[in-house]
Write a structure and sequence with these properties.
Helix content: 40-55%
Shape: elongated
Strand order of the largest sheet: 2-1-5-4-3
Radius of gyration: 36 Å
Structural class: alpha/beta
Oligomer: single chain
Strand content: 15-25%
Length: about 525
């Protein structure tokens, strides 16, 4: 008969077998099996009185042992000496269950790939790909970040990340067993979705929505809040902001949020000569002038009928044309050049300027009546220097953008470089910041994974040095004001940009993120000759 402690041990065997997912065996001091239970908690009499070698070694060495199971070398067994007995347990059935699950997953993988709308991959605990299928259920060879698969198996937690290889693609790593991971992505669905959106935007001539405008500063949040409120109105909008603040982006965002369903037509009033802009705005009839197209041409207002016309740099519009534009706004109709019949148009007008139109009205350079027609709803877009904290977010966004566009894997912007970006005053605003990050990504070596200070354009590096010098000196020295310092730095920056561009004003303007006309005005202001 067994003593009380042994009885307790025998009663516990079925439960131990269920917990470990295999077999639980009790042997005597010679390693002879007394009883044996399977993972269901049922006793197996066929193994009774057989010798279990691991139990014999366990008694002999007087210590617990771990090693391959007796009947399945792919499974593990644990042997623990308890008084004059040995308790042996295995995970045989759990391993078999996992193997069965893996085989079932393999068979289901093509269907899973179709449902996921991308690739479905099975990976082992070492990160080695076992098998992959595409969204058509076809077996394929794919590359991937299998390091994440190892982490998922180790942590026993699913991991979801954004793909570094394709925009808008998510990858999920799901641990299935102790040595197997399922990897899913939505690559095919994402590509179709992106392609569809690109096609829709192409047809509407727009690519920006309100959600595409990046920023967490209070200044930009207020502007976005105003934009959302007025988007569905049909009222005329005047966008006011410095060069490079993203006025056309806001115009497109307003148009898309309006859900008008009509087209978006943009025209830059400062980019076309006066002789052409009238025909572009209002169109012309066949034979209206020498060189006129057969059948005439629709003007921008007619093209934008039912949608939005965006008049950028409205301050540059010829004074005589301003009266014709005023009539269109008042009467909601246009008359083509060479035509006599007014044409009704239902077009929302969004205009933009980087100048003070009130001052231009006082100087008799802009019609007062047109100004009041345009300035129904005014949205002032804050310059980047007033958007506290947004430089960091925008810089990281542009880094990801140009990593994708240029096939780079630069992971971050270094602290010193980011500090220089944050201290710079950005006369060219967001456009200049984007150009700066594109420049830095191009300059960095392919082996480098971080944007450093020396990767930035020289004028920003110089500005950073000047700031440090000024911080050491007295700001009240010689009665100089902040404007004096800003003008001095701006002059130096323009001179460096021109020198680096070999005095090509168009290239220098592009790198500074300003228009050529703006650069010329500043050069005249500071007496810079080339």
């Amino acid at each position: 008969m067994y003593d009380e402690q042994t009885k307790i041990l025998l009663e516990a065997l079925p439960m131990i077998a269920k917990i470990t997912g295999g077999y639980a065996t009790l042997t005597d001091s010679n390693g002879v099996m007394i009883t044996n239970y399977d993972y269901k908690g049922e006793e197996l009499s066929q193994f009774k009185n057989q010798v279990y070698e691991m139990a014999t070694r366990c008694i002999k060495e007087k210590r617990p042992l771990i090693g391959p199971a007796r009947y399945d070398q792919n499974c593990m067994a644990w042997a623990v000496p308890i008084n004059n007995y040995v308790l042996v347990s295995t995970d045989t059935q759990r391993i078999r269950n996992e193997e069965n699950l893996k085989e079932a997953m393999k068979k289901a993988l093509p269907g899973i790939a179709r449902i996921a709308g991308g690739y479905a991959t099975m990976c082992d605990k070492m990160g080695q790909r076992i098998i992959s299928f595409d969204s058509n259920g076809q077996q394929v060879e794919v590359a991937g970040d299998f390091e994440q698969a190892r982490r998922s198996i180790t942590s026993k937690e699913p991991i979801v990340t954004m793909s570094t290889q394709a925009e808008g693609v998510y990858v999920a790593y799901i641990p299935i067993t102790s040595d197997c991971c399922l990897i899913l992505n939505n690559a095919t669905t994402s590509k179709k979705s992106i392609k569809l959106m690109q096609e829709v935007k192409r047809l509407q001539n727009t690519k920006y929505n309100i959600c595409d405008i990046i920023g967490e500063s209070q200044a930009i949040k207020r502007t976005l809040s105003e934009t959302v409120r007025i988007a569905r109105s049909n009222s005329t909008v005047l966008l006011v902001g410095e060069t490079g603040t993203g006025k056309e982006m806001f115009a497109q965002a307003i148009h898309n949020a309006s859900h008008s369903g009509g087209p978006f037509v943009a025209i830059n009033c400062g980019a076309l000569p006066d002789s052409l802009i009238e025909s572009h705005l209002f169109g012309y009839e066949e034979g209206a002038f020498t060189g006129a197209k057969k059948g005439g041409m629709l003007g921008s207002f007619e093209q934008a009928d039912g949608g939005t016309i965006f008049l950028d740099e409205i301050n540059e519009l010829d004074f005589n044309l301003q009266s014709k534009l005023l009539r269109v706004l008042q009467e909601k109709e246009v008359t083509r050049i060479g035509g006599s019949k007014p044409i009704r148009v239902n077009t929302r007008v969004i205009s933009a300027t980087n100048k003070n139109l009130r001052e231009l009205v006082k100087e008799k350079k802009f019609r007062e009546d047109l100004y009041y027609r345009l300035d129904v709803i005014r949205i002032t877009i804050p310059p980047l220097r007033e958007r506290e904290g947004d430089v960091t977010r925008l810089a990281e966004y542009f880094l990801n953008k140009y990593n994708t566009n240029l096939g780079r894997v630069i992971k971050q912007i270094g602290n010193e470089a980011m500090e220089a970006l944050q201290k710079y005053n950005w006369p060219g605003n967001v456009r200049e910041l984007e150009n700066t990050i594109e420049f830095a990504v191009n300059v960095a070596e392919y082996t480098e994974i971080e944007i450093l200070l020396h990767h930035l354009p020289q004028h920003i590096i110089l500005h950073n040095q000047k700031i440090k010098e000024v911080s050491k000196a007295s700001l009240y020295e010689n009665g100089r004001t902040l404007d004096d310092y800003v003008m001095e730095y701006e002059k130096e920056i323009i001179k460096i940009a021109l020198e680096n561009a070999k005095y090509k004003s168009s290239l220098a303007a592009k790198r500074l993120g300003v228009s050529v006309s703006t650069l010329w005005r500043k050069m005249q202001k500071y007496g810079i000759n080339v």
